[in-house]
Amino acid sequence: MLQQALDQSAQRGEPRGTITKQSVTVAGRASLEVIERPHNAPFSGNTYSVTYMIPYGANMLAVNQFWLPSGDPSAILTHMVQSLTLTGA
Q1: Residue 5 resides in a domain
Q2: What are the C-alpha distances in Å from 51 to residues 34, 46, 88?
Q3: Is residue 51 part of a domain?
Q4: Residue 2: inside a domain, yes or no?
Q5: Do residues 86 and 54 touch, judged by C-beta distance below 8 A?
Q6: How far apart are CA 31 and CA 86, in angstroms?
Q7: C-alpha to C-alpha distance for 59 and 55, rounded to whole angstroms
Q8: Could you read off the pLDDT of 36-57 as tens digits, one per residue?
Q9: Residue 11 lies in a domain
Q10: Segments forming the whole domain that contains residue 66
């Protein structure tokens, strides 16, 4: 699903930087960490974004942080992701 969205974005000619994906575990669930390296888009400058894609039943929970000076998640994002608890689905 994520790859399809990235492919569609590229087909529309939207600027994209280098994307790195790796499998991680968040809240006990197999998840995906996506780091987008700078692409110098007018709205983001030369910054990075980090997204965690966490399956939640038939949905996907995305936890994002934008405008990072490096490809490393901030201490706050890391704490949020490590302490996340999902109930239900």
Answers
A1: no
A2: 5, 17, 22
A3: yes
A4: no
A5: yes
A6: 13
A7: 6
A8: 887 656 666 678 889 999 998 8
A9: no
A10: 17-83
